[in-house]
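Sequence only, no structure available. Ideas?
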Amino acid sequence: MKVLLLGVTGRVGSRLLPALLAHKHQVVAYVRTPAKVSPEATSKLDSIVVGSASDSAAIKAAILSHDCDAVVNAAGLAAMTGLTSKGEFPAIFAAVVQAALEAGQERGSAPIRCWLMSGWSLLDSPKKPIPFFPSHKGNYQVIKSQPADILAWSLFCATDMSPKYDTPQFPPPADVSASNLVAKADAPPAWVEKYRTVPLIGNYLNIMAQAQSYFSVLENCVDFIAADLEKGLESEWIGKRVGVKEKSKVK
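Reply:
I predicted one. Tokens follow.
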């Protein structure tokens, strides 16, 4: 597929690029500051489009002018609580969704395949007693009403993703792969309600006991997205919130 990638200069996006290339996708980078794109990354990109990640018209134009089949958004950072500034993340999310939706409608053929980064707190289970990262819930409200035949979206709902390698690796090493993960739609895979019956604090205990087991390797996660894009509109994850867990942590 030809993929428009937002956030290529960031921690997640910079690892997405080699993963996408390893799966034979062509990548168009959409960036605010092209000088931040490394020379190595620049040499491997199909092209670079300069623009704001919250400008839906510019994103739409990039999709259409470069004939992109898919959009992956790794731009923006969600605020941990509602007590701090929301930052640009909700505006970026809304702009990408609107751009992909309008581009697909204007093109008049297949819908745009769209992967967007979200968060573990958005998954149905466990019940979260503390509303961390509230912008994810707002973003979900924006996208969940979009039918899959109009916008082929998926939300990647991971918790902490730590890179195994200090810098992006071209090509990705053999020890990082989507095959290292288990995945589930709309809920954390292999979740255990061990303390559910404990009055008042059961949910807290379940989260405290298991949350860190959902920390994952960033390179495995980006390979999951890149591999799934090979399926195009046949992906089983379209219209889903996707949770993952390292196989090595499944008991």
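The chain has seven helices and ten strands.
Hope that gets you unstuck.
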